Amino acid sequence: MLEPSNNNELPPIPAKRYFTIGEVSELCGVKPHVLRYWEQEFSQLKPVKRRGNRRYYQHQDVLMIRQIRSLLYEQGFTISGARQQLSGQQAKDDAHKSHQIIRQLRIELEELLQGLKR
Predict the structure, then answer these.
(1) Nearest-5° angle of CA 35, CA 41, CA 47?
(2) What average pLDDT is seen over the chain?
(3) Element (H, E) at 41
(4) Which of the residues 57, 61, 65, 82 could staple to 71 if both were Cys, CB 3.0 to 4.6 A apart?
(5) Are the C-beta atoms of 61 and 42 separated by less than 8 Å?
(6) Radius of gyration of the chain, Cα coordinates, nearest whole angstrom
(7) How far is CA 48 from CA 4, 15, 51, 105, in A?
(8) Which helix H or strand E contains 40, and what residues bound it?
(9) Eight-state DSSP code of residue 54
(10) In CATH, which of 1.10.10.10, 3.30.420.100, 1.10.3110.10, 1.10.1660.10 is domain 7-92?
């Protein structure tokens, strides 16, 4: 198992669609019981569950787990602090997307207005 401060020494994520909890545990340097606990604490972490309640994580889940690991183990956040950090980051991303859409709409409306003036 990797030391908590070695997040940049984690193995590369293979090009697969789904990963088992054991594979994710090795890829992220976190034990399976910790992953199950994090699922309860972080709403962003929702692996697909199939037959027999087996968890299958996708690529974005593995990236999220690595981010959570970094916040908790390297940056020293508490669980609630990491949760706030992740939701704040998500809100910033949503705001950025909204601004991009508004900018694009404005450009299109200005072009339309110029076309009507001709």
Answers:
(1) 50
(2) 85
(3) helix 32-41
(4) 82
(5) no
(6) 20
(7) 26, 17, 10, 36
(8) helix 32-41
(9) E
(10) 1.10.1660.10
Q: What is the pLDDT of residue 87?
A: 83
Q: What is the pLDDT of residues 48-105, one digit of tens each?
A: 998 888 999 999 999 999 999 999 999 999 999 999 888 876 656 666 677 778 888 8
Whole-angstrom distance, CA of residue 55 vs CA of residue 21:
6
Domain ranges across the chain: 7-92
Residues 6 or more apart in contact with residue 61 via CB below 8 angstroms: 19, 24, 45, 46, 47
What's the DSSP call for residue 4? T
Please report, as a single letter, which amino acid is at residue 41: E
- Name the token pair of 3: 């030391």
